């Protein structure tokens, strides 16, 4: 997952800081050397890494000089603040206008075409800023890119325009603009051509498109797997076109994440979104403070809460909570919970949003994958049960019911027995949790997750 490389190394350094309690000048210099090395290993640009460390050092050493020694928590706060600063300080607010034209640019293979559809889906369906979007295919060199964009437009139920016969970019752009005018489209997103590397012809074509459409936003799409060379590429696009913001793609994979630091800090162009998966919905608003929190192992409870809220129906969630507190949680409730969990993403992505304490945050990738598989098996088994059986799990002890469910689900007796054992254990945990909460006490986070992990 994104920032794993940097986060795992930084967490070791942070634990070392916390174990010392109080720090002196020598301790701080030693820690900052480690942090600098971690940044460089994570593909952060050398100048960016040096500026970052210098800024922390000035603030941290100043506190030590004043007090002879300083709290480790103060140093962590300084590191956090500088991470937020280097990532762009504030959230990039969408430049909403009555009619917006968005020009997407970037190298071939960066995920630009898919990101066009993701952005349209986000602004149209999720944020509901526009009523009639149009996706325009302007990549005359790759017919497959136009085909892909047309398929994606149908998938998210928005209009599409291109002309596979037209090989003049200027004429294609002019015709697309006429089409948008005639059909009163209020959001126009342009999918432009890319190259394996920048060249003069590409830049001239992009400048022609810009002159025709007069875009309100020009967004550079950067591949999260790119190393430090992406900074030079982005600088060239910015010099020629003046970028409005950046979207970094493929951030659900094992990217080092250093390119984000380099782009945000060096270009002074804000990052607006992160692509976090292959699905259309996998586009997250970029929050510098939340990313800094994740990197330092402090979790991202705000994003986790938003993911839960996106599932909707607060009354249903409240009803579920009341049932849990009353000790009436049944298999139907478990099925609903698992389906909601699936909508939020895989377990690995969810646990990364938790602070680095307790059992849930520190489980291995192997155990996460095993738990993910269990959840899918349990859903199949529960879907093979009758409504009465889900409401009254004691009926599931009968052999004939068991045989019928196994035949209908295609699962094994061991998996069936495992589900019942885990459910009983979960019921007990929920009842114990309810007692603790009703008593006004804080539950033990280390006990959460027992059973699945």
Structure in words:
Helix 9 (229-241) links the parallel strand 7 (217-223) and strand 8. 58% of the residues lie in helices and 9% in strands. Residues 357-361 have low confidence and may be disordered. The strands form 2 sheets. The protein has an 8-stranded mixed β-sheet with strand order 5-4-6-3-7-8-9-10, sandwiched between helices. With 453 residues, it is α/β, with parallel strands linked by helices. Helix 4 crosses helix 11. It has helices at 4-20, 25-41, 46-67, 72-86, 112-126, 143-155, 169-182, 200-213, 229-241, 258-267, 288-295, 301-309, 314-325, 331-344, 347-351, 358-362, 365-383, 387-391, 399-409, 413-438; strands spanning 22-23, 70-71, 100-105, 133-137, 159-161, 187-191, 217-223, 245-249, 271-275, 283-285. It folds into 3 domains: 4-86, Up-down Bundle (Four Helix Bundle (Hemerythrin (Met), subunit A)), CATH 1.20.120.140; 100-288, Rossmann fold (3-Layer(aba) Sandwich), CATH 3.40.50.300; 305-447, Orthogonal Bundle (434 Repressor (Amino-terminal Domain)). The protein is built from 20 helices and 10 strands.
The string of secondary-structure elements, in order, is HEHHEHEHEHEHEHEHEHEEHHHHHHHHHH
CATH structural class of the largest domain: Alpha Beta
The low-pLDDT segments are: 357-361
The domain tally reads 3
CATH superfamily of the largest domain: P-loop containing nucleotide triphosphate hydrolases
CATH architectural arrangement of the largest domain: 3-Layer(aba) Sandwich
Number of strands: 10
- Give the strand order, joined by hyphens, for the main sheet: 5-4-6-3-7-8-9-10
Give the mean pLDDT. 82
InterPro entries: AAA+_ATPase, P-loop_NTPase, Signal_recog_part_SRP54_M_sf, Signal_recog_particl_SRP54_hlx, Signal_recog_particle_SRP54_M, SRP, SRP/SRP_N, SRP54
Protein name: signal-recognition-particle GTPase
Keywords: Cytoplasm, GTP-binding, Hydrolase, Nucleotide-binding, Ribonucleoprotein, RNA-binding, Signal recognition particle
Main location: cytoplasm
